[in-house]
Structure formats: C-alpha cells, structure tokens
Amino acid sequence: MFHGLEGLDGGGDLTLDLGDDQYLLEGVPGESVTLADAGGSTVYADLDGDGIIDHISSTHADGGYDVYTADPHRAAWGLPADGNPPSGEPRTWGLTPGATPESVDPRPGISPEKAGWHWIDGG
After folding, report:
1. Is residue 115, in this structure, part of any structural domain at all?
2. How many domains does the chain have?
3. Minimal CB count within 10 Å: which of 23, 28, 58, 99?
4. Residue 10: which H helix or E strand, with range?
5. Full domain range(s) for residue 50
6. What's residue 116's pLDDT?
C-alpha cells in the first residue's frame, strides 16, 4: 500500500507513524519525501511543519492510487465545497474515519484503531 519503506536505515528528521510501526524519513520538517519501489511510489508529506508525516499519497504500479491524511480537519479539501457528496456517492464520501491504512489492509490481526489515518481518495 505504501511504497519505499522496506529497508529504510532509520535515519531522518521526519517521523511516520503507522500503528505500531514508526519510520524516520530523510527530509526537513514542513516538506515531503518521495519513496518508490517496484510496486509504485509514495509521497510522505509534513503539511504542518511539526516533523510528523500527516499526509500520504501513493500511486501504484497497476495505475491505482490512494490518499490518506492524519488530520481530516486540515484536509478539508478532500470534501466538496458545499459539504455534500457527489450525486450517487454515500454520505461518507471524502473522509471515512473507519478506513485507516490498517483497516483496509487484508492482513489478519491488524486493528483499525491503531492509527489516526483517514482515507480521503483513491481509485
């Protein structure tokens, strides 16, 4: 789901928390880091400059993509301007609090309560 994390050496100034896993990424607080592997590429961004990754955008080799945020209020751009979902979309369009990286991961034993990530777009 997220690309380029396997084999990181653990040095860096940007922290990425994914449930029980924590990664240190090379980069400067307030900026982003792009990592890639054979499965695609992922941009890990610190939008508020606190040194903690709070926005993740992944593009997969199969052409799909996923976008997550750790703070749905700062990511209001993921919702339509009038607050209503597009015609035919469920009321949960945009930010779906129950859809964290862990809850959409098919691996058994992963708890959706582990992280505060919200899926905001994908295809």
Report:
1. yes
2. 1
3. 28
4. none
5. 14-122
6. 74
Say if 5 falls within a structural domain.
Answer: no
Q: For residues 114 and 70, is the Cβ–Cβ distance under 8 A?
A: no
The answer as to whether 107 is a domain residue is yes
Strands (E), 1-123: 14-18, 21-25, 32-37, 40-45, 55-60, 65-69, 118-122
SS percent in the chain: helix, strand, coil, step 5? 0, 35, 65
**Count of CB atoms situated within 10 Å of the CB of 1:** 16
Is 4 a domain residue? Answer: no
Query: Is residue 51 left, alpha or beta, with left meaning phi > 0 and alpha meaning psi from -120 to 50?
Result: left
Q: Tell me what the pLDDT averaged over the chain comes to.
A: 74
